[in-house]
Amino acid sequence: MKLTRVLWAVGFGAVLSAAQAQTNPEPMDIVNLREDVRLLTQRVGDLQIRVEQLERENSALRSQTGNAAQTYATIAQLNDTVAELNRTIKASAATTKSETLEQVSAQMEKLAKETNAALADLAKGQATRANVQTSFSDDYPKEGVSYTVQKGDTLSSIAKKTNANVRDIVNANKISDPTRLMVGQSLFIPQAQAQKN
After folding, report:
1. 28, 46, 53, 68, 126 from 1: Cα distances, Å
2. Residue 60: which domain range?
3. Is 0.85 topped by the overall pTM?
4. Residue 22 has pLDDT above 60, yes or no
5. Does position 135 have pLDDT exceeding 70, yes or no?
6. CB contact burial 175-197 (16+ within 10 A = b; e otherwise)
7. Were both Cys, which of 89, 112, 172, 192 would link to 162 (CB 3.0–4.6 Å)?
């Protein structure tokens, strides 16, 4: 509408200028006036093209705004999906926790049974084991020989081999547990007398 008014004003101005030119014919003014009208017409055409471009851009922006509204609906749907996923994860974690506790409980019960059985076996072994001697007497002969424990030796077999007294060997070497002789261990045998073969 404004474009039409501009064109009408330009056209009216051209007619008016032409009328004045006829009453006052100056050739240079007419040429200038024609050039001004041509430039105005060109400018109006440029403005018309720019208005069309702005209308297209405005239409594109409106279209994008409509798409943005659809995007917000998608975000709302995404939020609902995330909330549902969180609920599922929490339920799964609770189930997994319950199953893990059941497995740990079963393993602890099994371990307790195995520990009790091991303790019972240990108690049986302690009951049959010889008493450990903690005090030793100095009442043994101070002269004797050195003997190296061989495989299969016991205190009684060593005493028999060396014609010594078991009690003297225990006291001289401070042997608290006679069942724990070690092969290669060196013992002092009080007043030992070597057997003759």
Report:
1. 34, 16, 17, 32, 116
2. 2-72
3. no
4. no
5. yes
6. beebeebeeeeebbbbbbeeeee
7. 192
> What would you report as the CA-atom Rg of the chain, rounded to the nearest whole angstrom?
60
Residues paired with 190 in a beta bridge = 144
Count how many Cα atoms sit within 13 Å of the Cα of residue 82 in the half-sphere of its side chain.
6
CATH code for the domain of 174: 3.10.350.10
| Boundary (domain end) residue, out of 49, 72, 95 | 72
Distance (Å, whole) CA 60 – CA 73? 20
Number of domains in the chain: 2
Last residue of a domain, one of 32, 53, 72: 72
- 25, part of any domain: yes
Instruction: Please check whether residue 84 lies inside any domain of the structure.
Output: no
